[in-house]
Give the backbone structure.
Amino acid sequence: MEKANTSPGSAPGRYGLSTDEFAAQHRVLAQSIRKQLWANGSYFGIVPLRLPNRKLLWPKDSVEKLLEAQNLSEGV
């Protein structure tokens, strides 16, 4: 599993969603997010920041990233 190359100090304010908040934003169960992350190392290309206490922080702009990726794939 590939780790994110960012640390909390290098990306202030970019990461800040818990897994539950991230799941609610994407309208799926948190369990689905965790399973996808475990199986693939990311949730549709979005990699969380793992804290030393094993908690995950997800990027706040993840919905926009997924929508941009969808628009790019539809245009092909």
Notes: The helical segments are 19-26, 30-40, 62-74. The first strand starts at residue 15 and ends at 17. The two ends are 29 Å apart (CA to CA).
